[in-house]
Amino acid sequence: MGSTVDRSTVADLLRLAIAEPDRAEREAGEILASDPGPWEESVARQARGIVLRDRGLIEGALAELRRAIRLARRAGDPDREADVRATLGVTLVMSGRSGAGLDQLDRAVHAATESATLARILMRRANMHYFFLERPHEAVVDLEQALPRLRSAGDRVWEARTLNVLGLSYLALGRTDEAAQAVGEADELFVREGQAVEAVVTLHNRGFIAYCSGDLPRSLRLYDDAAARYAVLQLDPQKLVSDRCDALLTAGLAEEAAELVTARVRAGSLLPVEHAELLLALATAELARGDARAALESASRARSLFRRQRRDWWADHAELLVLLARHGTGRPGRRLVGDAHALGTRLDEHGSDQAVEAWLLAGRAALAGGLDVAPQLLERAARFRRHSSALVRATGWRALALEREARGDSRGVLGACRLGLEALDEHRAGLGGSELRALANRHGDELAGLALHHAAEGTPRLLLAWSERWRATALAQPPVRPPDDREVARLLAALRDTRRRLTEARASGTDTVARLDDERARLELAIRQRARHVTGSSTELPRFDIDELIAGLGTRSFVQLVEVDGLIHVLLVAGGRVRRFRAGPVGDAEDLARIARFSLRQLARGRPVQLADIGERLQEALLGEAARALPDGPVVVSPTSRLHTAPWALLPALADVPFTVVPSASLWLRAQSSGPRSGRRVLIAGPGLETGGSEIAVLSERHPEALVLRDGSATVERCLAALDGAGIAHIAAHGRFREDSPMFSSLDVDDGPVTVHDLERLARAPYRLVLSACESGVVAPIGAGEMLGLASAMLSMGTAGIVSSVAAVNDAATAVVMLDVHRALDVGEDLGTVLLRARRLSHGDDLRRATAAAFLAIGA
Fold first, then answer.
1. Distance between CA atoms of 520 and 526, rounded to whole angstroms?
2. PANTHER family in the record, alphabetically (predicted)?
3. What is the C-alpha separation between 41 and 24, in angstroms, rounded?
4. Distance of CA 375 to CAs 380, 449, 454, Å?
5. Which terminal residue of the chain, N or C, has fewer Cβ atoms less than 10 Å from its own Cβ?
6. By C-alpha distance, which of 39, 25, 112, 113 is closest to 73?
7. Reduced 3-state DSSP string for 599-611
8. Domains and CATH numbers, the chain
9. Pairing between strand 681-685 and 707-709?
10. Which SS3 state, helix, strand or coil, does residue 638 take?
């Protein structure tokens, strides 16, 4: 046989063993039936060993491979023997005999004589270190030795494979720049060599590296590109769907995540294990978007499939979603306490961080049912408050707060809430797992609600301090781009990758769990320690000082609305005092705010509406007696998130005074203390405006020194460059508001949307920003007290003041109002006075009046 068959043809069996195992098995049988020489038989038996291994027939595989080694030795080919020995080592590691497997791989490395053979063996040993033994350091050492040998040999495909695994190993060590470069090079090589499937896998990996690096926009873009390339190949892997779902959920795009997974489940062609895992991802997305009933159905189906597959770890995590969804429907059933208790025990046995959620749920259900066991269950959950994970600690503190409340210990409640919110601040400074964002919001809401309930029993100053404390946490949103501090970025990327590998290890029950858990704890500790030493770290919140607020107000009055147990408490800071008033139910105020915005939209369409009565009713619902207690002079209003978008200019008490609206007192103090760094004026007109952005043309004539971008020149990159550090920036453009993920709210310019995460790239935010865009200032009510959206993001980034609409506006009337605004800005008026002048100039013109009332001055 050896004399009649080309050895390269026989050797091709090894490639077929992975790519086409049935064909490889058939051709290996043909070779073995033809009285082959020892070299050819060694290859055939090695190929059969690989096929048997990948089918799970380990003992048969080991027998074939050991025989192949003896044949290679008889053939007198040390590199053939080394190659088979490496395959034997890989098979032993995959079967759980890692010590014996590494011994064989080490012997193969020492036995190889050819550089290319040694490189391939090093690459396989690195695969075992990275994929099976969780030893990325060792993997990097092997891969960095293999790479130059493969390059010298001109083996571009194996070079690309080595680069791909090297990039993933770099990622595990937090070396994100090197990871992105290595996998990017692998992608290019695979494309050049025509390896389409491996090329798209590396593109998929590039998306995952971007995700772990904290760059969500880039991650989503790369995942979209990978999905398109998979589709060309008629592939739709479950892994990409799961990873895209994770990224979408982390970005807060729960609706898109649910739609993506639903479409893939309906498309079919899934293995049973893939189907179950996608149903679990779907349940997570549905719960995140607030659809508890749908989540209950999806999680129940996933649980049934996992149980049938005897995948206990997965089944128990699906059970947790079932119980959370049952609780979310408002009809948890009588068995919830017992079910959650039993689940908490099982999750503890799995070593799952989510055990705390089960114990907390059991305790809450026991409290609701008046059961004596409630304190014990809450105390069991509270033990997790010392955990290395910030979110787990926050859950533990939440449980302790509930336990203290049950004992009537208000001081203990506030102490636990304070520490719980501090843990959430730490969690949000990084990029938590996709399923954790909604969880963090829920914990924050409940901690804040508990604290505000007990603070409302104290002094007005105490209630104001706690209201500001929660707003500070809520405003510190998870970043969608990597942090500036490179060491923090490195540690966070390594932590995200380690969390993923730890979850997979626990789910499969491998013996690497302890090592990964230790590494996770080490990284979390290093991040906390680093954050304490980084100046201006996002985990460090400025301490709110009420006396500083009083001093900064001067002759102004400050009004903060606080929601406590469904009622509006109005805190009025004026004349050196803090007073408290009670208005009406939050629901009534929200209904009236919606009616008021609808009325403004009707006027914008030319339909007659009586605004005076609506304004009176809205004022009573929002401010109550506080409206009549307001002293003369300017006013600063800090509403709750869902009332931020009320048309405040319709309130009689505010209609004829300068006022501004702010997300929090702390942000107002920061905005008030900042000053313009530049007098540069930027004027931008986006596409599709009814007037064509007519105010931009007039303003550009009035200010010939201004930079004007319009009619094709207003591209995303040019707009961002112009906005960076501008003194006054006016953008006439339509906006798209995202309630589900305000960081992806946008303004339309010539070549696409400018989103909030794009604006985060600015080195310096513009000092004053005028937005004549439909609903650009609407702020998302994501969770109690969270202030998101385009306007609040700009204030957080350092913009002092914004003029923005809270309802749809008429383009033509907007152009007139904007000219009034700029006339006032030209003489140096503050924003509250600027809009007051615009409102006064609109008297006698209902359309112009409605348009002026739809705009708010946000900030200072």
1. 10
2. RAPSYN-RELATED, TETRATRICOPEPTIDE REPEAT PROTEIN 28
3. 13
4. 9, 20, 19
5. N
6. 39
7. HHHHHHCCCCCCH
8. 238-331 (1.25.40.10), 546-651 (no CATH), 670-859 (3.40.50.1460)
9. parallel
10. strand
- Would you say how long the chain is, in residues? 860
Task: List the beta bridge partners of residue 859.
Answer: 801
Determine contact, residues 450/264, Cβ cutoff 8 Å: no
Does residue 283 carry a pLDDT above 90? yes
Helix (H) or strand (E) holding 514: helix 513-533
Per-residue model confidence as pLDDT tens digits over 732-758:
888 766 655 666 677 889 988 887 777
According to DSSP, residue 807 is labeled S
Helix pair 355-368, 336-350: axis angle to 10 deg: 160
Instruction: Give the pLDDT score at 6.
Output: 61
Rounded-to-integer distance, Cα 594 and Cα 423, Å:
35
Higher pLDDT residue, 374 or 695? 374
Instruction: Decide if 707 contacts 681 (C-beta within 8 A).
Output: yes
8 A C-beta contact, residue 780 and residue 786: yes
pLDDT beyond 70 at 780: no
Query: Does residue 534 surpass a pLDDT of 50?
Result: no
Q: What percent of the chain has pLDDT over 70?
A: 89
Short-list 578, 544, 557, CA closest to 467? 544
The better pLDDT of the pair 676, 683 is held by 683
State residue 482's pLDDT score. 55
Round to the nearest angstrom and report the end-to-end CA distance of the chain.
88
Lowest-pLDDT choice from 42-46, 528-532, 745-749, 834-838:
528-532
Phi, psi dihedral angles at 686 (to 5 degrees): -85, 175
Handedness of CA 315, 316, 322, 324 (dihedral sign): negative
Q: How many helices (H) and strands (E) does the chain have?
A: 39, 14
What angle, rounded to 10 degrees, do the helices at 115-127 and 78-94 form?
0
The b/e string for 188-198 (b: 16+ C-beta within 10 A; e otherwise) is: ebbbeeebeeb
CA distances (Å), origin 614, targets 637, 683, 779: 19, 35, 22
Q: Give residue for tokens 């995540």.
A: 257
> How far is residue 272's CA from residue 427's CA, in Å, rounded to a whole number?
34
Q: Give residue 7's pLDDT.
A: 67
Confidence class for position 419, pLDDT limits 50, 70, 90: very high
User: Are the CB atoms for 358 and 340 separated by under 8 Å?
Assistant: yes
Confidence of residue 811 (pLDDT cuts 50, 70, 90): confident
Q: Which two tokens stand for residue 500?
A: 């993923």
SS3 assignment, position 582: strand
* 720-744 CB burial, b ≥16 within 10 A, e <16: eebbbbbebbbbbbbbbbbebbbbb
Assign 299 a pLDDT band (cuts: 50, 70, 90).
very high
Please report the pLDDT score of residue 658 as a whole number. 96
Q: Which DSSP string do the residues of 741-763 spell out, in sequence order?
A: -GGG-EEEETTEEEEHHHHTT-S
Both tokens assigned to 78: 């040390």
Question: Among 641, 677, 634, which Cα is nearest to 659's?
Answer: 634
> Please, which residues have CB within 8 angstroms of residue 403's CB and are 6 or more apart in sequence?
363, 375, 378, 379, 382
Structure tokens at 260: 């993506």
- Report yes or no: 343 and 321 within 8 Å, Cβ to Cβ: no
* pLDDT recorded at residue 810: 76
Give the DSSP H or E segment for 126: helix 115-127
Q: Is 401 helix (H, G, I), strand (E, B) or coil?
A: helix
Sheet holding 735-736, edge to edge: 735-736, 746-749, 752-755
For residue 384, give both structure tokens: 């997790």
Q: Does residue 339 register a pLDDT over 80? A: yes
Beta strands in 707-825 (DSSP E): 707-709, 728-732, 735-736, 746-749, 752-755, 768-771, 801-805
Out of 16-20, 522-526, 531-535, 542-546, least confident range: 531-535
Per-residue H/E/C for 207-218: HHHHHHHCCHHH
Structure tokens at 253: 């795009």
SS3 377: helix
Number of Cα atoms under 13 Å in the Cβ half of residue 422: 15
Residue 95: its pLDDT value, please? 87
